[in-house]
Amino acid sequence: MIGGSAEPDKAEIKKVREAWINKRPPVWTRVHALPGFVRFPHQRHIKILGTESCTTCHGDVRTMPQVYQVATLKMGWCVNCHVQRNVTRDCTVCHY
Questions:
Q1: 53-87, pLDDT tens digit by residue?
Q2: CA dist list (Å): 79 to 14, 29, 50, 70
Q3: CB hemisphere CA count around 28 (13 angstroms)
Q4: Quick one: how far is CA 77 from the chain centroid?
Q5: Is residue 44 a contact partner of residue 90, using CB atoms and an 8 Å limit?
Q6: DSSP assignment of 29-79
Q7: Which residues contact 27 (CB under 8 A, 6 or more apart)?
């Protein structure tokens, strides 16, 4: 999320607007990187977690001056979340 009226914020908003006008996806700076053998289906997580889905992994980006990684996103962290919510722990759901 980009907010504020500082010049760096305006520049980022301009990038998003230009991408929209040119009908191209914005070029994002990767903050969370997972290994190539791991897949993370956002849609499935949003369906289960609802409105809290983003903050669960990404933190409250609305209050961050710059987005940073909040959770480790290591396997143990993910498995703990699956255990707490009693959802699948089948290895092939995330690994291929």
A1: 888 888 998 888 878 889 998 999 999 999 999 99
A2: 39, 27, 19, 17
A3: 8
A4: 15
A5: no
A6: PP-----TTB---HHHHHHHHGGGHHHHHH--GGG-SS----S---HHHHH
A7: 15, 19
